Structure formats: structure tokens, C-alpha cells
Amino acid sequence: MRLIKRIATYLFLSVAAFISIFPFIWMVISMTNKSVDVTRGRLLPGTHFIENITTLFETQNIGTALTNSFIVAIITTILTLLIGSLAGYGFEIYRTKRKDVVFSILILSMMIPFAAIMIPLYRFFGQVSSVAPAFGIDTLAAVIMPTVITAFFIFFFRQNTKLFARDLVEAGRMDGLSELGIFFKIYVPTMKTTYAAAAIIAFMNSWNNYLWPLVVLQSPRNQTIPLLISNLGSGYSPDFGVIMTAIVIATLPTALVFFLMQKHFVAGMMGSVKG
Amino acid sequence: MKKTSLFLLLFGLLFFMAACSGEENAAGNEEENDTNASSDGEIIAWAWDQHFNIAALNVALEHYEDENFNLEIIENAQDDIVQRLNTGLSSGTMKGMPNIVLIEDQRAQSFLQSYPDAFYPIDDYFSTDDFADYKIAPTSYDGKQYGLPFDTGVTGLFYRTDLIEEAGYTHDDLVDITWGEFTEIAKDVTDKTGVAMISLDPNDLGILRVMMQTVGSWYTNPEGEITIANNDALREALEHYKTLLDNDSVKIVSDWSTFLASFNNGEVASVPSGNWIAPSISAEDSQNGLWKLAPIPRLEAAGAVNASNLGGSSWYVLNIDGKEAAAEFLGKTFGSNVDFYQDLVEEVGAIGTYKPASEGDAYTFENEYFNGQQIIYEFSQWMEDIPEVDYGLNTYGIEDILAAEVQNYLNGKSLDDVLADTQTQAENQFK
């Protein structure tokens, strides 16, 4: 009886796992097929892999796009973690009633969709361009800046800070550490799992970000990966084999980041739920 | 500690790179106030599809003799161009905007009317008389010509000779027919061969527009009023649409890729669509020589012609520095060069709307894939007959409303109610 139950459980889990991973498998298979075969839904590996890869590298600047995406994603992740955790730490450790009000307002800002602030933001960066072109429209800096301060990460870090033993702060003060010293030397090392979870989310968000880079980046030399993939699908007769190849290449970094930090990610998310 | 400083160093380097990427193109920017597009005499063009529109621009460049002219072509998906233009133009800053941009004809009026000052009139750079009449209305506004007409979306009925013959029909049976006759042939073909006649995506009502334009009708009239409730052409088109579905003559597809697959897999006997679908049809090697082309069917109404349009776009010049050079380039190539149009057909397969071009040799090329038919020539002849239509501002918006109502119609709602309700909803949304 127990054995049957066990088999049923595994069977169910295997089917569920297969269903969730199937699109990815199909994508990898399609990478080796001709466009016509992809639209037909062919499920067997083909012989067009080299051709698809060559076409992709010949027609698109995928190297540039990858580099840009990496620069943007890495800087965004680091700044997001730094700012989000400093703010979250501050709201929780130096908590007062007034700060709670500020925090609530901050949380409200999560309700505003990005599309609503996009046009004023574009106008703003248009003006920045006249003063400091290095940070204006069509620069990676303009992609990064509006995305590094998010209410979500401040909220995320604040919730996790509730788990942080406050005594450690007191202990640090006794030992003569400055407030920033406490943050960097005690808080940061003990909250590793939270940082890992936040890093994965921030990296993925930034890597997949589409709308804002789309409007603010115009030159091909500043193109990021999602923009490149969007271009690939824009033709009247898109080459789906090449598109699949590009998508697989674009997916790998996020998958890699996730698998490297998976252990911490689960722990970090659990923490935020408990808090 | 070592780790920290190494990390800081790397991070600093990265940020420097991010800032530098802006520095390059911003270098010549300082002396200009409202554009960076042409800061170094370079003209920037946005277009979609490397193998079609961008290829066409490259052919045009080869035919343009001006050593000082520097064109940078930037590939953008069509939806991306719409998004970028809307954001850029409505923010009021012209920064980051291109000099030349490709806009689909059905969207053009919404840009021209919303941002009239953002575009540069190019009447002086070419003669509108040289172009197919139906292209002029969507590309002009308030008596000024803003767009230089580019490709035609002239439609045709691509069909599978083997399946049509199996059902007992010949090429002549498909020439100059009405959509009513087409639905009967479709029923026969499906009954006798078991293959659907056409494939349709329920979210894409392009076929209704194709039908309506054969009598010069649209969702709106030239005054901009929504004309759905009393639109006889739309009424007839919807009736044919339902008949085709009721007779099981239609294979339903869900998106563009399944649409392409439907004919590549031999699941449909015909494709009524724009000329630009031809390369997608001939991508399937195994069907070589099995396809032919007939004129698009017409509606019953008086004055209907066997010619219509689906898609097609035109070039626009933005009102920023470099506009004269950009307009000059377009005028000397797309606007007046017959040789260029010959190369355009041979190298890109794009059919322009420049009337004098259809005399050339490239147009009479016999396409083996389509049974040796001169499909380019046929298309260019039909192109001149396409009825002129004012596409108005909200073609796609109205169509979203209509698409939902069409489903109700197919489920049994009366046609009168469907049209009246669509009219009301559209008026509420777009007035």
C-alpha cells in the first residue's frame, strides 16, 4: 500500500515536472531545427544547429547585447541590494511611528505601474541628456538608475530584518562599532541567504527588463538581449530556429544564477514568509 | 579586506563602462538642443524586418549618389517602433528620435494627427501622382504629404493547384469571383479533399478588412465617424466569415507561427493574403510547383473590384535636424528611381507602389514555385485597382472590440445586434 502511494506520488511529480520543463526542452530541440520544422512542432532534434548559430551571430550583435545585459544586470543587482538592504535595515532597526508612515507611503508606490511613469521619466532623461549626456537617453546608465530603488526590495529586506537578532546590534555598539560598521560587519554576513534570494530576483528582473530599455535605448550598440530577441521576431517571415537559439542563449545566465544560488534562495524566501 | 577592494574595483570598472557607452554617441551632442539623431551628419532610420524593409533601405543606399550622406539603419520590431515613437513624441522631447521612420499605413493617421509638428512635410521631394492612389490618403494629413509610400499590401488568393483540381475546379473558376462564390468552392474543396480552404486566427480580423476594401469601405468614414452599424460591406463580410466557419472550411490557428504552419504543412488549400506572404509559402520546398495565384475575391456590392490590400507601410521624416537630407534621400530613391524599384523586386522581393516601375523586366519574372506565373506583374496590375480607403485613427482599437463581438455572432447573436453593439462600444471608447 505504501509502495503504491509512493509510486503514485513520484508519478504525479514526474508528470508535473515534465510539463513545467517541457517548453524549455522544446526550445532546446527547436534550436537544432529549421524554421519550418519549428512551426510544425517537430519534437525530434534536427541538423540545423550550426546553421542557426551562424545566422544568429552573422545577423545580430549578440555579443554586444550580452555584454550590455550583463553590465546592466550586475550593476543593477549590486546597487539594488545595497540600497534596498540599507533602507530595509534602517526602517526596522531605527523604527519609529513616523518612519512607519513613510514606509507605508513607500509601499503604496508599488501600486503605480511602470507604464504610468514612463513618459515623465523619458522627458526627465531627455533633460538630463542636455546637461550630462553620459547619463541621458540612450545610455546604459539611464536604464540602471530608475530601477535600482524599488519599494519591493526595501519591503523584502525589512521583513527579513525582523528575523535578525537585535541583540547583535547592541553587542556591536558595546564593542565600539559605528552604525555603518554594524551594518556591514554584522548584518550583511548574517543575512547572506536573504541577499542571495534578493540577488536572484533583482538579476532576473533586470535581465528580463524590456519596456524601459526599449524606450530609452536606441542605438544597436546599447541594445540588451530582450530587445534583440524582439527584433528577431519582427520579420514578416521570422526564422523560428534562430529565435529559439537566441532565447536559449538568453535564458542560460538566469538559469545559471538561479542554480548557483538555489539553496540560499529557498532559505531566503522561507525567511521572508515567516517574518 | 582584499576581497572587498577587488570587488569595489570591479564594480567601479563596470559602472565606468556603463557610463562610457553613453559617452560615444553623446560626444557631438552638446551643441544641439533638441536632437542627437543627426549630431554628426548621420541620418538614422528605424525599420523592421531585415530581409524586407531594411534590405530595401540598403538597396536604396546603393542607388543614392551622395558621398556626404551617412545612413545608420536601426532594426526595431514594429511594435517596438510604435512604443518608442509614442513615448518619445508624447514626452515632448525629440531626443533619441530617428530621422526616418517606417510606419504601417493603418497606424499612420494616429501619429500624424496626434503629433502633427513632429513630422516634416515632404511634398516638395517627390510627386504623389506617381504612386498608387490608395496609398496617398493614409500618408497625408491636412493637405500635406508626410509619408513616402513604400510597399504595397496588395492581396491575392494563393491556392494549391492539386487540391483545387481534386475538387473539380480550374484556375479560371477562381478568377474574378465573389466571396460568396469562394465560400461555395471552399465547401466543395473541404467536402471532397478533407482539407480546410483557409486558416484564420480569431484575433486577427484582417480578412474582414480585405473584404471591405474591395468596395472601398472601412470601419470609419473619411470624416472620422465610426460606421459599423449601417455598414453593408462589413455586414456581408461577416456573413461570409460565418459561412466559412459553419461549413468547416476553416482551420483555426492561434498565432502567426501556427498560421504559417497551416499552409507549410498542407493543412489548407488556399491563402488569401498580402503579396508579402509569398516568401513564407515558398519556404516549404516540398510544395514547389503546387501553388498558383488568383485575384482576391470581391464582395457582391456594386463597384466592388477584385483587388484589395492588407498591410503595407510608408517612410516618414521627423521634424528634427537632418530632415532635408533625409527627405532628399527618400525622394531620389523611393520617390523617383525606376532602376531602384527593379533591384528592389529582384533582390528583396518587395513590390513598391511607384507606378512607373511596373514596366521593367524584373516585374515579368516567371516564378517557378508558383507554376511559372508572373506573380509580381499580376500583383502590380491589381495594385492600381485597389480602392482608396481612409483608415482613420483607431483601426486596431475598433477591431479589438469587433473581435469579441464576432465571437458572439458565431455563437448565435443576431448580426444587427452585433453591429449595433460594436458601434456603441467603439463610440464610447473613441469619441
Reconstruct the topology from this structure.
The complex is a heterodimer of chains A (275) and B (431).
Chain A: H1 2-30, H2 35-40, H3 49-59, H4 62-93, H5 97-108, H6 114-131, H7 140-144, H8 151-161, H9 167-174, H10 179-190, H11 192-208, H12 211-216, H13 225-232, H14 240-274
Helix pairs in contact in A: 1-14, 3-14, 4-8, 4-11, 8-14, 9-10, 11-14, 13-14
Chain B: H1 2-26, E1 42-47, H2 49-62, E2 70-75, H3 78-90, E3 100-104, H4 105-114, H5 136-139, E4 140-141, E5 144-145, E6 147-149, E7 155-160, H6 161-166, H7 171-174, H8 179-193, E8 198-200, H9 206-213, H10 232-246, E9 250-252, H11 256-264, E10 270-274, H12 278-281, E11 291-294, E12 313-317, H13 323-332, H14 338-348, H15 375-383, H16 395-410, H17 415-430
Provide structural commentary.
The complex is a heterodimer of chains A (275) and B (431). Chain A has 275 residues and is an all-alpha fold. Chain A has helices at residues 2-30, 35-40, 49-59, 62-93, 97-108, 114-131, 140-144, 151-161, 167-174, 179-190, 192-208, 211-216, 225-232, 240-274. In chain A, helix 3 crosses helix 14 and helix 11 (192-208) runs antiparallel to helix 14 (240-274). The longest helix of chain A is centred in the C-terminal third of the chain and has 35 residues, at 240-274. Chain A is globular and about 70 Å long. The model of chain A has no long low-confidence stretch (mean pLDDT 89). With 431 residues, chain B is of the alpha/beta class. Chain B is 44% helix and 12% strand. Chain B is built from 17 helices and twelve strands. In chain B, the strands form four sheets. Chain B has a five-stranded mixed sheet. Chain B has a three-stranded antiparallel sheet with strand order 10-7-11. A two-stranded antiparallel sheet of chain B has the order 4-5. In chain B, a hairpin with a 2-residue loop joins strand 4 and strand 5. In chain B, helix 2 packs antiparallel against helix 14 (338-348) and helix 8 (179-193) packs parallel to helix 10 (232-246). The N and C termini of chain B lie far apart (66 Å). In chain B, 49% of the residues are buried. Chain B: This is Lactose/L-arabinose transport system substrate-binding protein. Chain B: InterPro entries: Bact_solute-bd_prot1 (IPR050490), SBP (IPR006059). Chain B: Residues 1-21 form the signal peptide. Chain B: Keywords: Signal. Chain A: It is found in: Cell membrane.
